[in-house]
Amino acid sequence: MRRVPLYAALLAYVVFLAFPLLWLLSTALKTPQEMALTSPTWIPREPTPANFTDAFGEQDLVGAALRSLVVALASSLLTVVISLPAAYSMARYRSLVNRIAIGWVLVSQVFPFILIIIPLFLIMRDLELVNTLPGLVAVHVTFTLPFALWMLQGYVRAVPRELEEAASVDGASRLRAIASVVAPLLAPGVVATLLFAFISSWNEFMFALVFLQDPDVMTLPLTLVRFTGPEGVARLGPLAAASLMATIPSLIFFAIIQRRLKSGLMAGAVKG
Amino acid sequence: MTATATRPAPPRAPRSKRRGASRQKREMWLLMLPAMVPVLLFSVGPLLYGIGLAFTDARNTRVHETSFVGLENFTRMLSDEQFWASFQIGAIWSVSVTVLQFLAALGLALLLNMNLRFRSVARVLAVVPWAMPPVVIGLMWKLVYHPDAGILNGLLGTDVNWLADFSLALPAIIVVGVWTGMPQTTVVLLAGLQNVPKELYEAGEVDGAGRWRRFWNITLPQLRPVIVAITSLDFVWNFNQFGLVYVLTQGGPGGRTRLPMLFAYEEAFRYRAAGYASMLGLAMAIVVLAVLGLYLWRQMREAK
């Protein structure tokens, strides 16, 4: 009986966390007629997938999703390719450069982006990279890099140096030792970092807002926001459906790393 | 192995070691280079450039001669009423969201750390907001707050346009801020709770300490470093929040939710005052670093 207040509290949390999600789902399944009712209903009377098919019918949304996919794929691959050697160096050698790099990783968590985004815009404009996807990829790579480095150097550290040395002693060249001994052990870490970088880019809004002004090059988050025009409630259904679909990649990512979240990833990130 | 065994006497060792060290250094630079180029070009460079811009009258247009104006932007900022209003809103927003996030997350983490049934449901739900794109979170809450099609008016039997109401808009977005940021805080606090040694609680129980005493005298002191770390990070993240509020209100109604970030964004990209906006950014950076430094310094002093 002493536990009743505890369960009540847990229930309150569940309700607070879940009700906006359920409302989004409910809105995504409603017909425009039901949406226009004066007293909103929780459970749609005639649940319809029409909003989802409508969202797929919107050329703007489909195009934006494809562009987001391209940008996220390119940025995540580039991020990992660039940060892997640096992470190896950070984990294996002690030196001033590496200490500065680690300092930068921490500082970058704190910095107000507005101070960077204005000059960055001017630079990108001079490089003719405003309103282009490669420009956005470059920016996403730069700002995902610190955390990706942090993740990867942790994974490299976890591979015992002795293994590498043992391979060299057995006559393998350093490169071969790294390729055949370190790389396979790093694979899970690389995958986690890839996914992290992909999601960061897929979800990113502010840089995209500043650097992409032409509707023809806009990514999904931007297009979703534009979609909430002044047209009223009629388009809320497809908007809710599209929002749900835009969340799927992140949900997959979190489902994969859920187990590690509790102790590993964030604990390491915070303990520094 | 034979190579090391037959290697001749020490005299030659220092030289080869030195050569090894310089080779190592070259190798290290080579490994760091690909990551350094984008960071220097798109992050460190703009940062320095931005600090410089704050002291110019730069405009975000193609045809404009930029000239050095010294502290003109700074004095303009000090006498800009909109700036003070925005900073005040930013302070209310970031402090209240950080505090509420922390309290709510601590409560949830304590519950999740107990042996309750259904806690796995709560545990999954607690991570979901984290997994959602900020833009989708904003749109979702817009649907909740929507004056006609939203559920909140239906639930409360009210007829309020939450996000357009002068006095309700800020509290309304603070709720969204708490909802959005609670997961990270909960996950980190939960990890901290699970690292508190069980023996401490057993000892406390032997000494006859009740649940509250154990919480105050064991849990909180043990959690302290984690609490300091996550509340500092939360504060900075909240102060720098942009996307969520941009989607929800765009700073409206009448600037009542115009956080400093939105204010600086408008100055830079709507009114094209790049120099002035950079000064705003610089001021924000200094305020964040000062608040953070003060907080961490006090915490460290108390910890000693």
Automatic annotation (TrEMBL), chain A:
Domain of life, source organism: Bacteria
Biological processes per GO annotation: transmembrane transport
Transmembrane segments: 69-88, 100-124, 136-156, 177-199, 236-257
Pfam family for this entry, one: BPD_transp_1
Signal sequence annotation: none
Membrane topology type: Multi-pass membrane protein
Family in the record: Belongs to the binding-protein-dependent transport system permease family.
Name of the protein this chain belongs to: Sugar ABC transporter permease
Organism: Nonomuraea aridisoli
